[in-house]
């Protein structure tokens, strides 16, 4: 095989064939004899004290082998909840709740586990669970975050004096001066819809206790090492005797990057019963009891001069946490990151924010793709369009006027973020060129003359990614965020690559092989990836936060370079030349400029294993290296999304006509992978913008408990995405790579809201609540028509739908 540079090439994904022919192995595919199946009695009340729990009928049900309440396990298992470090968030500004694996004194949301049933099948376990007789003493329910923060509100956690978990203020610059004498001030109140990841494979666990007293847990999880550490701590179990394996994982998106009660209980019951124990959530459990995300209220105001220069911004953010705090990535990350990144790609003279995070009687909210960025970019970009309308400027021209320009990087924001590099203006211009922006404006005028309402929306952002250990320390989270790789070459010249990250759709088997193959001068086919097994792989922090290509890839490259250097030293002795005069190309170590003087890498590998006496002085046998790579606190990718839509004003239905993305994620390892990641993210972002909303009634009962009620986009709703790429290498990472895994999901709400508002410009409307369901769009048009016909009538913002 002739040598070609693999990094940057459109290499087809090597992991796909087994998925396409149904040969993947998920947790539910793994079977053991004598497995017990776990089912839960879940709370039907949003807020209540627990009274009598009658288990007699359930115990006598066929096939039942065990039934447990919270009181039965409370002494054996610590509560879930890895707190913020008190030096960063002292008790005066942060309350730290604890989450029992099964409820004990009271329940705090519909779906909370109360009783665990172990039976010979899931059917029998669920039948027995229905026989449990519960008594509740109902308490007042709090379903609104702002109401929860008011004095006298019913307390979700009675050990604290309020429902506030974290309250933080911050910003920078001269905010008062930035608003003084402003020509235009835009003020709006935004509401973002509670929704969730909805992975194709729900959460699933299978635990097995062996004769040596070890536990093996198979889990559909994004971070197996972290999961092992947290379960061992909660159980008080030796971590070296707990092995966690994440086999093929059918999507993660953030909600699988945590420890849940079901993970702990599966392990605990396997040890207690000395039999394998399995739990696989059904879709109703998934909607009720897997972490939700992104229910935020943002009051924002921005000031501008008459020529359109942005000057200042104020933001008041209230995040609905739900009932508990996620572990180990605390739930307030959403609100805090929203505040920290709200400046986006624009230059402000002053910025002030206030973040309040509140407990309510809903399922806990936690990290989901685009943490903080999704609501932040939606707010920022819709505000820019509203300002353009007030100023009489083109929305792209207003953005270009206020963006950080390439020559201004590195740029430090008012919240202290150091944007090391970027191309926001270039990305916006390129996206507009791909779309044919001026041509569309002419087409829009023609369409309006025909009674058609089409519009264009822009959403541009800078994405904070990676989150190295330095960031985690500053955020009060007491753990690292490095990652790891082992490169091990066998005597035949093949390479086993063991990594601490975990691919659950991202294509690591392809991209990591590209990185290692280029460093070692071998074929991708000669590299095998091992991941997701805590017994085999070095400790790593899994996959999430747009980190794997930067942190995991950086570890792979640096470990491969160590092996490469050793190969060159050994080959140098074999060829009697200086290692500096050699290069690894096409499976050979050859003299630069004299390719006929070469030795096969396979020969070097064999010699390193079987002939250690012939190695250079001081060299150990074997070809193996380990790298733990701790990245910078952040890297910053940027992108522009532009959408065009058509709105049916009689039904409110939104049809997407075109969708353009220009992404700058630094050095591109594989454009196929990048475009696939973006497309998947856009699909989820369109769900946020148009479809998805987890709704509760005033009693805390979920109204969207199935896919008949909770809508997600399908292939018929997701448009073909048109791509443009820019590569602005960062000096801070190995190879100049930046994170981009979340980027596709960040911009669609802003792009769609702006496009729909632009299509309906004759009605002078705005969209400050998500999702833009047909009902909400139609109702907005109706109110605009009524206001136009009767200017004295004013309407409040549209209600949640």
In summary, what is this structure?
With 801 residues, the protein is of the alpha+beta class. Helices cover 29% and strands 24% of the residues.
Task: Provide structural commentary.
The protein has 801 residues and is of the alpha+beta class. The protein folds into three domains: 16-23 and 482-629, Aldehyde Oxidoreductase, domain 4; 32-138 and 203-249 and 256-289, Alpha-Beta Complex (Aldehyde Oxidoreductase, domain 3); 296-469 and 633-789, 2-Layer Sandwich (Aldehyde Oxidoreductase, domain 4), CATH 3.30.365. 29% of the residues lie in helices and 24% in strands. It is built from 22 helices and 28 strands. The strands form seven sheets. Strands 3-5-1-12-9-10-11 form a seven-stranded mixed β-sheet, sandwiched between helices. Strand 13 and strand 14 form a beta hairpin. Helix 10 runs parallel beside helix 11. The protein is globular, with a radius of gyration of 28 Å. The model is unreliable at 796-801 (pLDDT under 50).
Number of domains: 3
CATH topology of the largest domain: Aldehyde Oxidoreductase, domain 4
Q: Just give the CATH class of the largest domain.
A: Alpha Beta
The rough form would be described as globular
SS class: alpha+beta
Residue ranges: pLDDT <50 for 5 or more in a row? 796-801
Q: What's the CATH H-level homologous superfamily of the largest domain?
A: Aldehyde oxidase/xanthine dehydrogenase, molybdopterin binding domain
Tally of strands: 28
If strands are numbered along the chain, what order do they take across the biggest sheet? 3-5-1-12-9-10-11
Bin the strand percentage: 15-25%
CATH architecture of the largest domain: 2-Layer Sandwich
- What is the alpha-carbon Rg in Å? 28 Å
How many helices? The count is 22
**CA-CA gap between termini:** 59 Å
Average pLDDT confidence is 96
Measured as a percent range, the helix fraction is 25-40%
Query: Mind summarizing the main beta sheet?
Result: 7 strands, mixed
